[in-house]
Specification:
The chain has 369 residues and is an alpha/beta fold. The chain has 15 helices and 16 strands. It folds into 2 domains: 245 residues, Alkaline Phosphatase, subunit A, CATH 3.40.720; 111 residues, Gyrase A, domain 2, CATH 3.30.1360.110. A 7-stranded mixed β-sheet has the order 2-16-8-1-7-5-6, with helices on both faces. Strands 10-11-13-12 form a 4-stranded antiparallel β-sheet.
Length: 369
């Protein structure tokens, strides 16, 4: 029986508009030989939530990661989610090892936080932000986290590892610094993707029978208005605070401004009125209480705020000095950045089998049963 080998590549913010704006012959060939599917990301459309969803094949209601920054509703204490303490579901790597699918698994990510979150069950785990010495010898000097070059480094490390180690299951996730700074038609944006496409081409040429799935965790859009939902409510007589779900330590990407937020009220009896007030606020597109949000978006109800808010296409939420401020940032998190491509090559499944990016992981897991 032919040995099955799988590569899953999550191009951070690699939405259709970015792919369509660049000349990417490898991705085009993979799509023509296999399939190209317009699919959905998980909402909130941020890195932690979607990478964990893909890498566990489950929604946040199961794996428990609903944000980049967790606030304990009972204590009010907040902390960055940067390791696997909050993770409630096994990774693809753990299941692949337990089922005897893989003798060797590998995880390649740009950010260290994803490495700490997803490394369980891996034999090889590399973060381009702080790689082991042997990978510097293999792929070149360490590149700045805020650069296109770090993603090229990451793909080179994947290519060399596939060539030298030949692991059965590989998951790779880039970073979206370029998309946060440049629109799809910008030269820097196109150069970034053209180089990634070339390295992917080398991977395909060197291992043409490997299954390959390429998707994204979210899209990226330009924003002009920043809003603090907690301040909005407090100024209207409803004491509240809010945390943008995008909040992490990589502030140069997005300034901790994103299209979704969790709102926490001093008095939870005021939730219905708070929702009415938020929906009456320019820039707020959707607002749900905990139970509604958990059901609609398949979120873990104990890991979200009293209210879940989503912004319109040009608005982001943040922790601000005033309730509303002008801004100029490219960011994500809302429903508007939740549409992503899926490219499948050498896949046993059809495009119609994929509705969400996480279906790449889900279908793989189902095939092991």
């Amino acid at each position: 029986m032919k040995r099955r080998k799988v590569l899953i590549l999550c191009i951070d913010a690699g939405s259709h508009d970015y792919l369509a704006a660049s000349d990417l012959p490898t991705l085009q060939e993979l799509a023509e030989s296999g399939f190209y599917r317009h699919a959905n990301a998980v909402i909130p459309s941020v890195t932690n939530v979607n990478n964990v969803s893909i890498a566990t094949g489950t929604f946040p209601e199961t794996h428990g990661i609903t944000t980049n920054y967790h606030v304990d509703r009972a204590t009010g204490k907040g902390e960055f989610i940067e390791d696997d303490r909050f993770l409630l579901a096994p990774t693809l790597f753990q299941t692949a090892k337990a089922s005897k699918f893989a003798d060797k698994t590998a995880l390649f990510v740009t950010k260290k936080k994803l490495l700490r979150m997803l490394a369980s069950g891996t034999d090889i785990a590399v973060a381009a932000e702080d790689p082991p010495d042997e990978y510097i010898q293999m792929a070149g000097p360490v590149e700045p986290i805020y650069s296109a070059e770090i993603n090229w480094w990451l793909l080179r490390a994947v290519r060399e590892t596939l060539r030298l180690e030949d692991p059965e299951l590989v998951y790779c996730s880039t970073t979206d610094w370029v998309q946060h700074k440049y629109a799809p038609d910008a030269e820097h944006s196109q150069q970034h993707l053209v180089m990634l496409d070339a390295i992917i081409g080398d991977i395909v040429n060197e291992d043409p029978e490997r299954e390959i799935y390429i998707t994204a965790d979210h899209g990226m859009l330009a924003k002009t208005v920043a809003l603090d939902p907690g301040r909005v409510l407090t100024e209207r007589g409803i004491p509240a605070s809010s945390i943008p779900i995008i909040k992490d330590r990589y502030v140069a990407h997005h300034g901790n401004l994103g299209g979704a937020a969790y709102v926490f009220l001093k008095n939870r009896d005021e939730i219905p009125e708070a929702i009415r007030q938020l929906l009456d606020t320019s820039g707020v597109e959707e607002a749900y209480n905990t139970e509604e949000a958990a059901q609609i978006f398949r979120l873990h109800p104990e890991r979200i705020g009293d209210i879940f808010v989503l912004a319109d296409e040009t608005t982001v939420f943040g922790e601000l000095e005033t309730a509303v401020e002008p801004t100029n940032v490219r960011s994500h998190g809302s429903r508007h950045e939740s549409y992503v491509p899926i490219i499948g090559y050498n896949s046993p499944w059809a495009a119609t089998d994929f509705e969400y990016n996480l279906d790449v992981g889900r279908l793989f897991l189902e095939s092991l049963r």
